[in-house]
Amino acid sequence: MKKELFVLIFVFGFLNIVNAQKAERTYIFGHSLLNHEFQVNPTPSQETSVPHWMHFLAQEAQHTFSVSGQYGFLPGHANLPPFAQWGFDFVEGAWDSDNEPFSDADFNSILITPGNFIQWQGPTENYPSKDISPHSATRDIFEWCIEQEEPLRFYIYENWPDMGGYLANGFPPTELEWDAYNQYLQADFHDWFIEYHDGLKNHFSDVCIQMIPVGPIISKLLLLEPFNQIEIENLYEDDAPHGRASIYFLASMVTYMAMYEEKVPLVFMVDPIIDPIIADNYLSIVEFIWSELNAFNYENGTSRVFCSSPVSSSSITQDDKINIEIFPNPIEDDLYIAGLKVGQTIELFTVNGVRCLSNKVADIHQSISSTLLPLGILMAVITDEEGTIIYSQRLVNLK
């Protein structure tokens, strides 16, 4: 079931244009690094799956997302037609494979991911004891899908490698083991996916086949402050490594931005099942992912990620917010806001999105009595004269 308590997060800036609703109907040839059903510590719903979070991100953006998918690896996926195995509590299914053909499902995108333990040999080399390679299996799948439905956009979901070979004494890894794992993830493992993507792009020259570098982006993020303070056991549950909810939430953010070709929603509620360091720094994560996706290009500057030009949106620069300070937190008798500019607006919201205070700045220093504010978690949002959000901070009022 849905959580009753959410953390309200406001994302920097507003889109420069009003976007029409987008409808993604996606079939996924996947495995447990996209949809992890059988967790060591079960979650209330499917929080350890990318489609679960994709649904809520799309819903908040007033888009639609429907999905069907199946478990397996590429040789098994190439045994066509596919069979829809997945179901979700909140995500609308896109195809009833028992009662209708694939061609009637009106898919417009395909998401596929190889195994994460096969990168010891090239993507065009056959699997041991098989007459099929990752490349040839994927080619067969794509050709079959194109025969059933056109036009389709194809996305390669770059996952993250098996961790077991880096662990001397089992999970979790030591600091040195974690560093070695991430070095491999961002280098040889990533290079394998680039070769895999290039081969498919060369074979299907007139089809949109893009690559979503989910694993490398998450890896880079987790090595930065403050995300490197998160305990690895709060991110992964084993050496496969299957993620906990926070990893699949981050993966969904990357996947959403790649497929919808825009930043995640301007207003979103981060479920408390997500690690608080991630929730508290959601805004910077959005900017980091967006920057990484836009920088993932071919040598000629063409995007490896986007089929068309992504929707541009304003970003807040560090200079705009660097002097703003809101303290103390938790709130004591009074809440102080320093570094404001005349003409800006300070607003406070409850976790349910209810505005409990709105002040136009006439003095660069503001103070607010805690007695005027509701108890619990609040979100302070500061906007400039044009209404663009330039700063936000989560607060706690205990008095």
Protein traits:
Rossmann fold; Immunoglobulin-like; four-stranded antiparallel sheet; 27% helix; disordered N terminus
CATH fold descriptor of the largest domain: Rossmann fold
Number of domains: 2
Strand content: 15-25%
Helix content: 25-40%
Which structural class fits the helix and strand makeup?
Answer: alpha/beta
Describe the structure.
This protein folds into 2 domains: 7-295, 3-Layer(aba) Sandwich (Rossmann fold), CATH 3.40.50; 318-397, Immunoglobulin-like, CATH 2.60.40.10. It has helices spanning 50-60, 74-77, 134-148, 175-203, 214-222, 245-260, 276-280, 282-295, 318-321, and strands at residues 7-10, 23-30, 64-71, 92-93, 109-112, 153-157, 209-212, 267-270, 325-327, 334-338, 345-350, 355-360, 366-369, 376-383, 389-397. It is an alpha/beta fold. The strands form 4 sheets. A 6-stranded parallel sheet has the order 4-3-2-5-6-7, sandwiched between helices. It has a 4-stranded antiparallel sheet with strand order 12-11-14-15, with no helix packed on it. Helix 3 packs across helix 4 (175-203), helix 4 packs antiparallel against helix 5 and helix 6 (245-260) crosses helix 8 (282-295). It has 9 helices and 15 strands. 27% of the residues lie in helices and 20% in strands. The relative contact order is 0.14.
